[in-house]
Specification:
Number of domains: 1
Protein name: D-alanyl-lipoteichoic acid biosynthesis protein DltD
Strand content: 5-15%
Number of strands: 5
Shape: globular
Distance between the termini: 74 Å
Pfam families: DltD
Mean pLDDT: 89
Largest sheet: 5 strands, parallel
Order of helices and strands: HHHHHEHEHEHHHHHHHHEHHEH
Helix content: 40-55%
Radius of gyration: 22 Å
Structural class: alpha/beta
Low-confidence stretches: 9-27
InterPro entries: DltD, LTA_DltD
Length: 381
């Protein structure tokens, strides 16, 4: 039998075997400070569904994490990642973590997976009112946003209390496709032994190696990648807010709701009655997820600036979701955070202020200017 035709296969199998037996620590060096700088506004899966980049980011004092959802992706020159760009003025650079569908539980799991790194760490968490729907986080969004590696890291956090681990396990069991239900059942009853693990050590090692390698893959561009600042570095916050109003007015000339023109075109193309009655539910299951997140951050000793953003009040009035209904959710968000020991920057009194929201629900322009100022103050507090 001739071996030469099989040489490439044999070499591939040997290399794969070597990869499997190498320790993950050999790959951790692939995530460098330069990697973090590139990933800062990338909103990549390696950040959102991984653990290694966030771990490295929290171990550095160079970054200020901002957790949220789809508002982080918008090409807005007043986004703090763009506005707080001068490293000689701001001691840390904003690091964006979140995408569409990243609601309270998604963010809570990401943060709980970093629990042992959180004590004293400053960060912001943006709470969007449209998360508080009749159904809360769906199975589809859960499957798309959470990885086995994150859950494994969560349950391996040495200092995360058994009570919180039980609460996470019980909540995770409500999702039909969640991995390793047997382990979660045991954890929910505080009945795990030292030999029980969410992932095996072998699988954990392989996932970490793959994640480290992927962190070096060239990143696709986001909307923020080519967004240029339009304000002078030495401008006052009053001047920046004025510039945001001018910019917002320029980009929302097509309608009376101060909605950016591109989004208004999409609304007009819809041509059907817009039904958002399922939003702003004061009894949404999302509130329990917010409680879990705030309790986790308090127990970890993190220095979190919770930011409660409004909706476009004029637009929501127009589609029949009135102020009274919205206010109940705003008030309950505020109460949930404060009653559980959190500190909140409540922007919901700006529900009708022009250019704070750039479409129906996404913070933008003047809203980002307010938030950027608040984050800058928090950095130096």
């Amino acid at each position: 039998m001739k071996i030469k035709p099989f040489t490439p296969i044999i070499i591939s199998l040997c290399l794969f075997g070597i990869f499997l037996i190498l320790p993950s620590s050999w790959f951790s060096g692939l995530i460098t400070t330069k990697t973090l700088e590139k990933q800062r506004i990338a909103l990549s899966d390696q950040v959102l569904k991984g653990t290694l980049i966030q771990d490295k980011m929290f171990r550095s004092n160079a970054f200020y994490p901002i957790y949220g959802s789809s508002e982080l992706e918008k090409d807005d020159p007043f986004n703090p990642a763009i506005l707080l760009r001068d490293q000689t003025v701001y001691s840390q650079q904003p690091f964006l973590i979140g995408t569409g569908g990243s609601t309270d539980l998604i963010n809570a799991i990401e943060l709980a997976a970093q629990y042992d790194n959180l004590k004293g760490k400053k960060m912001a968490f943006i709470i969007s009112p449209q998360w508080f729907t009749n159904h809360g986080l769906t199975n589809k969004n859960f499957d798309a946003r959470i990885s086995k590696t994150q859950l494994n890291h969560l349950f391996n956090q040495k200092n995360l209390s058994p009570e919180l681990k039980q609460r996470y396990a019980k909540r995770l069991l409500s999702f039909k496709n969640v991995y390793n239900r047997n382990y979660l059942e045991k954890m929910s009853k505080d009945n795990v032994s030292e030999t029980d693990h969410y992932l095996s050590s072998f699988n954990t090692t392989q996932f970490e190696k793959i994640e480290a390698i992927k962190s070096r893959v060239p990143l696709s561009k986001t909307e923020l990648t080519d967004t240029e600042p339009i304000t002078a570095q030495e401008a006052s916050w009053q001047a920046i807010r004025k510039q945001a109003e001018i910019h917002g007015a320029k980009h929302s000339q097509s309608n009376a709701f101060k909605i950016r023109d591109e989004y208004w075109d999409l609304i007009k193309a819809h041509k059907r009655k817009i039904n958002r009655d399922y939003e702003f539910n004061a009894h949404s299951p999302e509130f329990k997820d917010l409680e879990l997140l705030v309790d986790t951050m308090r127990e970890a000793g993190a220095d979190v600036e919770y930011i409660s953003i409004p909706s476009n009040g004029k637009w929501y009035d127009h589609i029949g979701v009135h102020k009274e209904k919205r206010q109940k959710v705003y008030d309950k968000i505020n109460h949930t955070v404060i009653s559980r020991g959190g500190r909140i920057y409540d922007m919901t009194d700006k529900d009708y202020e022009p250019y704070v929201i750039s479409d129906a629900v996404h913070i933008g322009w003047k809203g980002w200017a307010y938030i950027s100022e608040h984050i800058a103050q928090h950095m130096h507090r």
